[in-house]
Amino acid sequence: MSTLTIQPNRLAEANLAIDLHEVAKTYRGKVQALRGINMQVVRGEIFGLLGPNGAGKSTLVKILMTVIRPSRCTGTMLGMPVGHKATLGRVGYLPEHHRFAEYLTGAQVIDFYGAMANVPRRERRRRTGELLELVGMTAWARKRVKSYSKGMRQRIGVAQALINDPDLVLLDEPTDGVDPVGRRDIRNILARIKEDGRTVFINSHLLSELEMVCDRVAILVQGKVSSQGTIDELTRDQQRYDIEVGVSGNVDRTVDESTVRALPVQWIGDGQPLLMGPSGNDNAMVKRVGWRGSLRTGEAVEANGPFIRVASTDAQVVQPIIDALRSRGVVIKSVRPHRPSLEDLFMKAVTDPTSGEVLAPGAAPPPNVSKKGANP
Amino acid sequence: MIRQTLALFIDAYRELNAKKLFWITLAISALVVGAVGAVGINERGWTMLWWTFDDATINSKVMKPVVFYRFVFATLAIPIWLTWAATILALVSTASIIPEFVSGGAIELSLSKPISRMRLILTKYLTGLTFAALQVGVFCVACFLVIGIRAGAWDASLFLAVPIVVLFFSYLYCFCALVGLVTRSTIASVLITIGFWVLIFLVHSGEQVFLTFKTTNELRQERLVAMIEALKAQREQSEQQAKADGREVDPAVLHVNETSMQRRQEQLDRTKADSKMLVRGHAIMYGVMTVLPKTKETVGLLNRYLLTTKEQEQFLGGDDMPAPGPRSQDDVRISQKQLMVRLEQERRSRTIFWVLGTSIGFEVALVGLLVWFFCRRDF
Predict the structure, then answer these.
(1) Mean pLDDT, to the nearest integer, of B200-210?
(2) Same domain? A172 vs A306
(3) Does residue A299 belong to any structural domain of this protein?
(4) Is A323 domain-assigned?
(5) A318-355: per-residue pLDDT in tens?
(6) A227 and A179 in one domain?
(7) pLDDT per residue over B317-348, tens digit each?
(8) How confident is the model at residue A371 (pLDDT cuts 50, 70, 90)?
(9) Which residue of B100, B108, B116 is in closest CB contact with A65?
(10) Nearest CA of chain A to the CA of B177: how many Å?
(11) Contact B108 A93 (CB under 8 A)
(12) Domain tally for chain A?
């Protein structure tokens, strides 16, 4: 698994909203929910934390919000040690599966949590009106929460997280149960929060949502950060150009061996196609997977079926291959830059590189248990 | 700081207001106050609405109306309504405060605010007690007005019931809050608290049973000693009479006296033997009671402060047993009134420190446990 971190120089310069080192949490029963988290969130960015169920995402957020006591934690939030109560007055929080008192109205919920965050009454009144407008709940402000739909409760949840005019907003699954219109609205709200210079930390497993709004992400797998950085940084080694060849009449849509040998590529295995199978002894299962090699400039190239894949985001790099194909009269059907999605990145992170199997959901297994995952 | 505390109290009010039980309890309180107002006293006896019930011991010639009303308030209205039925209603209403506060989805938001866990849980605990204080406060104001109008005595000492009943409720509520925090279940906290209350009641009843037997035993001993002394005196009198008359004492009289004295002495010895067992049993029950909160004694303080021993005795009626003398020489039963008076004296002899100090000690220990558990728990 690739692990990208922010450059140390940049880190030193950056004004970090969250800076965590070796955060660990072991629950009773020896379930290791977090196994040494190192994570940095830069001020003013939207940071996404993703991971499979039970990976420890909510546990980490709860540690930051003092809901859970860590087994070990070194780090700061808004420049103060994690757990510093007064700092929480500058933080907004929307927990996952939150449950507001049903006897309160939406406006009362926002006002109550504002008071708990020590916001003066006059300011609470003013901001409650603004926030209700922001989340599109003004018409429902005087109705009791028990009459709200899930999406409406989520909107009120987002509003209450902003009542104290926070520098940092932590949202745990903010679009959970929200319809597409609501999700778009929440995305717009997040954009506005960012425009105001605030930092947003989102916990979610809705990858497409995160991809649309996050500046940087971290992937948490079995209580450890498997990778963290901008989406571009994390996918850089998987970005490539795909050249698809085709023939008029479509008789054969594969790159033949002579064409492959004619390309300006240094092939591995002296130009022989690579073989791959689940068992070295079982010849019947062996199949040809294509050719692999590299350009003179170092970029990896793979030819398989109708595709020639060049591991580069630079269009200049693929020109010699296109020229070589065209000189042999090969029909080029398409040349497409390929950038992996967050889902590709996520799946790669949660896949065991040795077995190729998706890791069991949940926390890291206890030392004496080998396979099964466990949820805290 | 005050802002957060105020917000928690307003929230508690909204929560209780949403529960109809709060208003139902107040409505029933109003009915009880109405019942207190319906009872009166006149020269012939006591009255209920427009009916008069003739009574030789309870009438305005024997006692002042204010004493009668204090008795009704401290002996009937408070123990029967406020510290029994209203307490159960208050427990049912407030038992959910802690479990709902720590339920998943709600507690995260409270803990994530700039307020310490200790202050959070203590404030929540106090909101529960405020409910009881509100109920008792309203009840006392209503009783104060009713007694003032009916008896013409504006007796502010009735308000002593507010701290005493709230304290009584707090003994149960601290237990209820702790169970609610541990189990996160309202039903479990109500049921277990009522079970705990029953346990306190049983221990208290056990202690009272031992105390009654012990006191009866002491009174019997006193009576037997008095009887023996009377027999001795009778014998001496007979001897002196015979000496004065210059004759021997009648052997039959001496025999009867001797036999009676011997029988009384045997009874006294048996009573003393029983006394050891009763004293030990009572000491054990008293010890157990010392550790537990003293609900009945706490409420009894109200009686102690509102009515003097003499006023209290007026409500016990006339003596049902004459003093030991020739007519009742063989009768070793003791006077029930005397027993009641002695028991009341014993109860009143218990110090405030014993009644309140040990009970508050219990409450402090439980609230400490509540805070410790809340501060250490992951949610």
Answers:
(1) 93
(2) no
(3) yes
(4) yes
(5) 999 999 988 888 888 889 988 887 888 888 888 877 77
(6) yes
(7) 555 555 544 445 566 677 788 888 888 888 88
(8) very low
(9) B108
(10) 19
(11) yes
(12) 2
User: Is A302 found in the same domain as A245?
Assistant: yes
Question: Considering A235, A261, A294, which residue would you say is the last residue of a domain?
Answer: A235
Using a CB-CB distance cutoff of 8 angstroms, which residues of chain A are in contact with residue B108? 62, 65, 67, 93, 95, 98
Q: Mean pLDDT, to the nearest integer, of B191-211?
A: 94
Q: Do A78 and A34 fall within a single domain?
A: yes
Mark which of A235, A253, A287 sits at the end of a domain: A235
The whole-angstrom distance between A184's CA and the closest CA on chain B is 24
Are A254 and A333 in a shared domain? yes
Which of chain A's residues have a Cβ under 8 Å away from the Cβ of B3? 115, 118, 120-121
Would an 8 Å CB–CB cutoff place B114 in contact with chain A?
Answer: yes
Chain B residues within an 8 Å CB radius of A115: 3-4, 6-7
- pLDDT value of position A138: 94
- Which CATH number characterizes residue A44's domain? 3.40.50.300
- What is the chain A residue with the closest CA to B14? A103
What is the domain range of residue A24?
16-90+166-235
CA distance B137 to B326: 55
**pLDDT of A367:** 56
CB contact under 8 A, B18 and A118: no
Interface of A with B in 82-121 (CB under 8 A): 85-89, 91, 93, 95, 97-101, 103-104, 108, 112-113, 115-118, 120-121
Q: What is the pTM of this model?
A: 0.78
Same domain, A191 and A297: no
Residue B297 has pLDDT above 50, yes or no: yes
Say what the ipTM of the complex is.
Answer: 0.77
Reported as a single tens digit per residue, the pLDDT across A175-226 is: 887 888 888 888 888 988 999 899 999 998 778 888 888 999 999 988 889 8
Task: Tell me: do A191 and A329 sit in the same domain.
Answer: no
State whether A20 and A82 are in the same domain.
yes
Is A121 part of any domain?
A: no
Q: Is residue A355 part of a domain?
A: no
